[in-house]
Structure formats: structure tokens, C-alpha cells
Amino acid sequence: MKGNEALAEAAIQAGCCNFFGYPITPQTELAAYMAKRMPKIGGTYLQAESEVAAINMVQGAAAAGVRAMTSSSSRGISLKTEGISYMAGSDLPCLIINVQRGGPGLGGIQPSQSDYWQATKAPGHGDLHILVFAPYSVQEMVDLVGHAYDLADEYRMPAMILADGLLGQMMEPVVLDDSRSAKTLPKKEWAACGHNNERRHNIINSLYLQASELEKLVVERFERYKVIEDKEPMCEKYMAEDAEYIVVAYGASARIAKAAVKQARANGIKAGLIRPITLWPFPVKELSQAAESAKSFLCVEMSMGQMVEDIRLAIECRRPVGFFGHTGGVVPTPAEVLEQIIKMTGGVK
Amino acid sequence: MAIVFKKPKALTDVPTHYCPGCTHGIIHRLVAQCIDELGIEGKSIGIAPVGCAVLAYNYFSCDMIQAPHGRAPAVATGVKRSLPDRFVFTYQGDGDLAAIGTAETVHAATRGENITVIFVNNAIYGMTGGQMAPTSLPNQVTQTTPYGRDVKIAGYPIRVCEMLSTLDGTAYAERVSVDCVKNVNKAKKAIKKAFQTQLEGKGFSIVEVLSACPTNWGFAPNDALQWLRDNMLPYYPLGVYKDKTAQEAQNNE
After folding, report:
1. Chain B contacts of A197, Cβ < 8 Å?
2. Nearest to B79 among A20, A60, A90 (CB)
């Protein structure tokens, strides 16, 4: 399956019955797939008048207690940030897909990872986080969609799959998990779905005019974030146990970095890869542990260097952290990354 | 003793924050009365706007969602598409509906989204202290048109019901006023009609209610109602602009 289509089918398998989107490259196959599938499962595919409307339709669906989804790319996500902030402030779960392309501005349509900061630091105004997952294969896209929905529901917050144009367009075999069903989801007692004269009215809201009341709620939300930072980070370690040189990369960059690490090992260099799967919460503990034995780190991204800052923070600058990347839609090659790894070791062995 | 007047069940028992002479209270009451009479509180979901009516979620006793500025019709769409058997209404002011939320309004209407919009038009931004609204009248003095709305600079007011009535998805559009008892009674009938339009699955319905804002207009409550009659009624004629139910009945004759 194509990455974009796999994301869509996985969402349906996870109980998503409403998709609201707006056309944008390079995620078009996802929306097209939803348009074909949703009527057949009695769900809704709705092409909204804008990204802004689409995310607010998701908000309505999430408030009503159903699993909903929107997908977009980079600049479209910028338009959704208002809605994301409202949902975070109203404790609403949902799933947002960002199939990243080059920026800033209209940028380009080739794969990029330059929305890391937006996704992990500022997905909307105010004190907030959203869950951010970074798959690196089509199978992992499928697996993470269901997991993202579950965590979003559990912690009552928006979740994002931060993919890129490369993964979205890639075709790989996948195994779908059809054991998930909307019927087995936990009941959402808080939903605004009509009280049937059986309970007091539910209010979905993010407005608190008393400063102390707002502070209390935000602090409570951050207590929840602490639990997530403790329990939910995910990463893959590849040849990292005895590695002296650790490459850190996520998503499509991690595929390239993995190939480079293999080649480095073949050249007798003790290289390894740490691949964050969750970008928020960031796998701080794993990186910090790796800094005990590794000599230095290299961050590889399809950006000018965004995640690299979180690596430095995670290891508290105990080891040098270099950066290599391309941006604007240019994809690094394994040979380029290998060259950087060799540089880390102090030259050709 | 016989009770001749009481609070509708669909309103919560709390004091509102509205200014003296503000007509939001009347309009809230009319909406609640219609919900009571149709017996739909249990299946109603209301969407509150950003603006003076932002706290409407505290006042209506059905389930409520507070939407971002202008996005109420999109949020309502998400609810209605998820729960098509529920009754979904938005309650929006003029800045919310006809400026920042114009796209959401027009597209919900043209999709024939089966929701009801209560549109409170008081020709000014109330919550933020009296700035020019998309429906402020030519020459109207506001905080941001201190010399009067100059149409050469600020353009012309939008007549929402007229505009939306051109769209095939709009099933019912009526403009009413709450400046006097007679008009208040008519307003209630219009709201009930709009609600019934949704309950019959006919599509998008909107009731535009001309409303007074004594605080920001700078008038005593009675003078504000007179200003509404003298200035708003000529520019915003009352009446039914679209009624698919009536059109169908006519076609069947």
C-alpha cells in the first residue's frame, strides 16, 4: 500500500468514522482514499472549504465523542493551529496527519522535516503539547495510527502523525490490524452528544476568565503531560548498545541514517542509530543513557536542524552533537551521512 | 395560584452577564422556549460563538460546545455529521458570523448542512468594546469608525439573509427583530420554524435577529430600541427570504 492510503485505512480500522480535509500535495491520496471508503462504511468524508474549517469540523466530531481525523501538509497545518490549540484547551482527542513538504511559505512539494518545531514546540498558541508520532515505514504508519488514537483518547488530547512526502508516497507491504473496532472504545462521558434528560449538560470549552482558574487547569494538564513524558516515549535503537558514534534521526531520515550506520559498521566504525518514534514526548532517557558510553552524536534531519536542539538538551550537552541535513525537499543520501560519520571518528580509518 | 410566566427549562438558573437593555436575554429565552415546546433539549447540542454570547454555554441547559471565533458552523457540521439524529444549533454575532466566519457560514449554507443558525445582528462588536462590525451601517459611529462608517474606506454592510437566500442549500432564512412585543412574538415563530426545518431534515436554516446594544451604541435601552427601528429596519428589511417548505407546498398545489 502507498503510505498515504495506509494511514487512511489504518484510521478506519481504528474506528475513525469522520474525515474532514482540504486538498493539498503531497497528502492527496489519503483524502481520495477516504472519499472512496467512508461512504462504504457509513462514515463521513467531507471536503471542507478550508483547513481552518476542516480542523473545526474535527473539533465538532471530537466534542460529539467520535474518532475523527484531518490530514494536511505543512502550510495547511499552520492554518489548523488555531483549532489544535482550542482542542488542547478543551481536552479533546483527535488525529491530525502532517505529510510534510518544504517550507517556509508555500515552499515546495518535495519531502521535508522542517515542521518539527511546529509539531513539538508550538502546534498552537498557549501552554500546550500534542502527542507527536514519527513513523519511518508504511507498516509503522499503520501501527502508530491506532496507538495514536488510543493515547489521544486516554489522555484526552490531540495527536499528530508527523510523516513526510517521502513516506506518504512510498509503497510497501503492510499488515492491517482489524481487531480494533469503534465498539470497544471506552465511553466518553464528557462528550457533548445530547444529555437525553439523563444528566446535567456537558460543556466543551477552553475559556476561563478567572486567571487563577485558568492557571489551575493548565497546571493540571501539565501534570498529565509529565505522566506522558514518563510513560509514553518510544524509540528504536539499532546497533546502539556498544556504539561510540550515535546517529539520531526520525522518519524518512532514519531510513537513510540506518543504511549509513550499516555501511559504517562494515567499515569497522562502531556506529549506531537511535530513532525517536515519539517526538513529543521525546525519548530523553534513552538518549541520556546513550551519552554515558558514546563519544559523540550526529543528528540527521531533512531541515536546517530542529530536533538537534532536543538531543543537546536530552544529553545536557555532555557530548558533542553534530548536525547534517538537507532542506527544501532535498533528501540526504546514505553516502553523505556515512561521510559525516567518518568525520566524527576523526577521519578515514 | 396559576403560574403565568416562568423560566424555560432549556435555560439554566443563573444570572447572565449581559448589559442592561441588551436583547441577548430575550433571544436566549426565545431559543429556549422553542427547545422546550419541541421537547428537544435532550437531543440538542448548541454551539457558542466568540463575542458577547461566548458564555451562552452556561445559560442553555442542553449540551454545549464553545467554538473558535467564526467557526461555529464548522464545529456544528462536525457534530451533525457525527450524530445526524441530534438537533444542532449555533448562536453567533455579526462579527463572528459575517466577518471572521463568513466562509464557514456560506459553505455550511451551500452544503445544505442540516443545522440552525441563530444570528444576532446588533451592528457592532460588543465584547471588545464597540468596534465596526460587518453589519455596521453607513455613517454609524463606532470606536474604529469615529467619524462614521465611510463606505469609501470601510465598504458596505452585509445583508446576510439576502446573500444566503441565493444558495440552493439554504432551506429557511428569515430576518426578525426584538425591538417590540409584536416583533418578539414573530421572532419566536421564526426560530421555531427554523428548528422545525432542521427536524424535518430540510437543510440549512438561519434566523437573523436585529438586536440592540445600548452600551456600545451609547444609548439608554429605550433609545437604543428606537435607534434600531429608525436605522436598522430600513437597511435590513424584516421578512422571510427563503422557505423551501412553503415553496414545496406551492409547487404541489
Report:
1. 41-42
2. A60
Nearest CA in chain A to B66: A205
Residue B17 falls inside a structural domain: no
Residue B44: phi and psi, rounded to 5, are -95, 140
In a domain, A134, yes or no: yes
Tens-place pLDDT, residues B172-199: 999 999 999 999 999 999 999 999 999 9
Contact B119, B178 (CB under 8 A): no
> How many domains are there within chain B?
1
What is the distance in angstroms between the Cα of A57 and the nearest Cα belonging to chain B?
4
- Is 0.90 surpassed by the pTM of this model? yes
Placement of cell 493540571 in the chain: A220
Cβ pair A134, A95 in contact under 8 A: no
Residue range A125-170, pLDDT digits in tens: 999 999 999 999 999 999 999 999 999 999 999 999 999 999 999 9
Range of the domain at A305: 236-344
CB B203 within 8 A of CB B212: no
Mutate to test the interface with A, among B38, B79, B97, B167 (most CBs of A within 10 A): B79
Question: Which residues, other chains included, contact A79 with Cβ-Cβ below 8 Å and sequence gap of 6+?
Answer: A50, A51, A52, A55, A72
Q: Which amino acid is at B22?
A: C
CA distance A61 to chain B (A): 4
Q: Which of B71, B86, B102 to mutate to test the interface with A (most CBs of A within 10 A)?
A: B71
Confirm if A116 and A306 have CB atoms less than 8 A apart: yes
Q: What is the CATH number of the domain that holds A136?
A: 3.40.50.970
Tell me the shortest Cα–Cα distance from A29 to chain B, in angstroms: 22
Q: A292 at the B interface (CB within 8 A)?
A: no
| Claim to verify: residue A57 and residue A158 sit in the same structural domain | yes
Domain-ending residue, one of A229, A257, A289: A229
Q: pLDDT tens-digit profile of B35-67?
A: 999 999 999 999 999 999 999 999 999 999 999
Q: Which of A49, A56, A194 sits opposite B67 (nearest CB)?
A: A56
Structural domain of B239: 24-252
Grid cell 558533542 in the structure block, residue: A320
Which cell numbers hold the place of A242?
556498544
State chain B's mean pLDDT as an integer.
97
Residues A177 and A300 in one domain: no
Q: Contact at 8 Å (CB) between A53 and A120?
A: no
Instruction: State whether A36 and A94 are in the same domain.
Output: yes
Residue where a domain stops, chosen among A181, A207, A229? A229
A176 and A272: one domain?
no
Q: Is B75 close to A60, i.e. CB distance below 8 A?
A: yes
How many of the other CB atoms lie within 10 Å of CB of A4? 26
Asked whether the beta carbons of residue B83 and residue A198 sit closer than 8 angstroms, the reply is no
Maximum Cα interatomic distance, chain B, rounded to a whole number of Å? 61
Distance from CA of A13 to the nearest CA of B (A): 17
- Going by C-alpha positions, the residue among A259, A251, A312 that lies closest to residue A115 is A251
Rounded CA separation A109/A156 (Å): 33
